[in-house]
Design a protein that fits this description.
With 225 residues, the protein is α/β, with parallel strands linked by helices. It has two helices and 18 strands. A hairpin with a 5-residue loop joins strand 1 and strand 2. The chain is elongated. 39% of the residues are buried.
Length: 225
């Protein structure tokens, strides 16, 4: 796992960015966060370089960075922290993530095809035009996400959680949804076609075949009254 090094600025509670030695290897030296680091451009370039030159990446801390036009294909990430990062035009096939944190990150126009992602948190993320097609997404945290025109088609979502998520024009076709949680979701034009929705868990009176919008929930409550 990544080490929870805090920013060197005494009053700052943000996580520090990873540091590197002369050979380009990650160290555990104390550092500043992105907001306080003296040379953010250099820090970004070092992290870009490390990702591009390593296939196995352990304990990288890149909190808050904008990562654009990178290829994660066939790379393996273990215990990395991408909290509040922005990912733009990321191409990835056969990428592996274990116990990584992407909380409150933003994904725009990203392809995460045939990914293998376990025990990873995407809580509060925003996905726009992002594809997780044909992926293993097992026991992950997608609570509170916002997904627009995105796809999880042909994926294994066993025991993953989408509690209080907002899903718009997003598809879960032909997915394994066993033990996945969709409590209190707001859904508009979401397809679960060919997926085992009976083995997933939805809120009471919420049907996966109809959009679970706030308006629909309110109207149902009025009818009961």
């Amino acid at each position: 796992m990544f080490s929870e090094n805090k920013c060197l600025v005494p009053y700052c509670k943000n996580n520090a960015l990873s540091t590197f030695d002369h050979d380009g290897n990650i160290t555990e030296e104390k550092n500043y966060c992105l907001d306080h680091i003296p040379d953010p451009g250099k820090a970004k370039n070092e992290i870009y370089q490390y990702i591009s030159t390593h296939d196995k990446i352990i304990g990288l801390n890149a909190c808050g960075l904008i990562l654009k036009d990178l290829d994660f294909s066939n790379k393996k990430f273990y215990g990395c922290n991408f909290h509040h990062c922005t990912f733009i035009n990321i191409h990835s096939e056969n990428c592996l993530f274990r116990m990584c944190i992407f909380d409150f990150a933003v994904f725009n126009d990203c392809n995460m095809l045939q990914s293998n992602i376990l025990f990873t948190s995407f809580a509060g993320c925003t996905f726009t035009h992002t594809l997780f097609t044909s992926s293993d997404l097992i026991q992950n945290n997608f609570n509170g996400i916002k997904a627009y025109q995105s796809s999880f088609d042909d994926s294994d979502l066993f025991n993953s959680r989408f509690i209080m998520s907002t899903l718009v024009d997003t598809s879960f076709r032909n997915c394994n949804l066993k033990k996945s949680l969709f409590y209190d979701t707001n859904r508009t034009n979401v397809s679960f076609k060919m997926s085992n929705t009976r083995e997933a868990l939805f809120s009471e009176n919420d049907s996966p075949v109809t959009p679970a919008t706030t308006e629909n929930k309110d109207s149902k409550q009025e009818e009961k009254a």
